[in-house]
């Protein structure tokens, strides 16, 4: 039962990131609201309003038909325009920044909710339109339902105004990177907090029993509490082999167990791994490094040449790297001072190398960006870190960057600046 609950939560988390989730939810609410109003009309709510507050009720069938038809036409036009703006945003982000940004932009709840409000109101008006009986009898016109439709249309107009404001902000690369940075920061802080409760002691799993996945996908969420319950019950320990966020192929070893497991237990354990087909920063902080790195690389490509965006991206990377320094290299999770699960993670040295390998290619010829990156390295060396061995990785990346810059820059004055940065950093470049 608990495994089913966790799988349901994982499924809900996946569909929630789809662009059709909130519009579909609001559409159902709109239809249900129409049926609720049918019930209230049967109970005589329009008759009551005509008798007590007549100026709020449209009591003429022809007028009601005209109003609803005009509202529906306007709302459909607004919805088409809003949807076109969302597609324009996604196209521009993909072409100018990185296609990897699209899942985060698609999962923007503001755009989905506004489209859902439009759709709910349109469907509501369609159902109310069917209920109007143009016979001239004032009590056969659903006056209260029409009033609710008018109020819903007013809400849609204000939602449209807010949509224009929000879309103009969302399309700016600074806001896009800020959103990515904030999601990754939340995820990293949560992992650092979990590290403080974890243990560093875990036996070698070299000769343990190995079990493979039965499907392919990105390893996103893992139900740690369920896995610890299974380990406690079966008196075993589990070593999760793939790094969270990596693409796991069918048949590739997924985890190792200290004790041999029966087929039923294996299936229960596999049910606690969520293999998705899309990546989200909220599930995997490493994706934030990839996305910001790709924005920097795209900004410095010859076709775009936007060093200002690259400088902003380096600022965001600096803060994320400083947070990553506080995280342990491997997560060992336990309960009651007993270690149950070990989860592999990307080491800091590997992470900073992968990021800098891409950035150096497009930034080594620009002395301003080289200076900015050196400032980043200096800042990282001053930070508190979980593993002091990361200092060597930072020095190595700084030395590699300055060597590449020296071989790419031909201007004498810029070369002197590179030499001075190396001396200030305490490095001897080739």
From TrEMBL:
The chain crosses the membrane at residues 20-40, 64-90, 110-132, 144-164. The keyword Transmembrane helix applies. The keyword ATP-binding does not apply. InterPro entries: DUF2254_membrane (IPR018723). Keywords: Membrane, Transmembrane, Transmembrane helix. It comes from the Bacteria. This is DUF2254 domain-containing protein. The lineage of its organism: Bacteria, Pseudomonadati, Bacteroidota, Flavobacteriia, Flavobacteriales.
């Amino acid at each position: 039962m608990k495994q089913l609950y966790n799988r349901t939560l994982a499924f809900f988390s996946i569909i929630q990131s789809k662009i059709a989730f909130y519009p579909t939810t609001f559409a159902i609410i709109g239809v249900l609201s129409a049926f609720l109003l049918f019930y209230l009309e049967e109970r005589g709510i329009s008759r009551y309003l005509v008798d007590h507050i007549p100026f709020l009720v449209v009591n003429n069938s022809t007028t009601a038909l005209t109003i609803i038809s005009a509202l529906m036409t306007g709302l459909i036009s607004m919805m088409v325009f809003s949807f076109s703006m969302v597609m324009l945003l996604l196209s521009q982000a993909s072409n100018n920044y990185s296609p990897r940004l699209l899942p985060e932009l698609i999962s923007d709840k503001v755009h989905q909710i506004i489209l859902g409000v439009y759709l709910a109101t349109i469907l509501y008006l369609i159902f109310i339109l069917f209920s109007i009986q143009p016979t001239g009898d004032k009590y056969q016109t659903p006056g209260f339902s029409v009033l609710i439709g008018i109020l819903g249309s007013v809400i849609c107009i204000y939602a449209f105004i807010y949509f224009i404001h929000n879309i103009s902000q969302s399309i700016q690369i600074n806001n896009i990177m800020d959103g990515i940075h904030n999601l990754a920061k939340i995820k990293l802080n949560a992992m650092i907090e979990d590290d403080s409760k974890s243990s560093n002691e875990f036996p070698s799993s070299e000769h343990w029993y190995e079990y493979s996945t039965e499907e392919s996908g990105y390893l996103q969420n893992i139900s740690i509490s369920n896995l610890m319950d299974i380990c406690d019950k079966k008196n075993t320990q589990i070593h999760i082999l793939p790094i969270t966020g990596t693409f796991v192929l069918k048949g590739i070893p997924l985890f190792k167990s200290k004790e041999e497991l029966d087929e039923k237990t294996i299936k229960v354990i596999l049910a606690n791994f969520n293999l998705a087909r899309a990546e989200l920063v909220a599930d995997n902080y490493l994706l934030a490094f990839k996305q910001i790195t790709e924005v920097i690389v795209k900004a410095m490509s010859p076709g775009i040449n936007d060093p200002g965006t690259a400088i902003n991206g380096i600022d965001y990377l600096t803060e994320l790297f400083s947070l990553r320094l506080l995280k342990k290299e491997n997560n060992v999770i336990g309960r009651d001072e007993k270690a149950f699960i070990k989860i592999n993670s990307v080491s800091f040295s590997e992470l900073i190398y992968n990021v800098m390998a891409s950035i150096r290619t497009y930034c080594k010829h620009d002395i301003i960006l080289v200076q900015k990156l050196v400032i980043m390295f200096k800042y990282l060396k001053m930070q508190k870190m979980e593993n002091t061995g990361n200092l060597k990785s930072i020095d190595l990346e700084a030395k590699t960057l300055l060597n590449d810059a020296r071989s790419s820059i031909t201007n004498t004055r810029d070369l002197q600046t590179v030499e001075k940065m190396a001396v200030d950093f305490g490095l001897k470049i080739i």
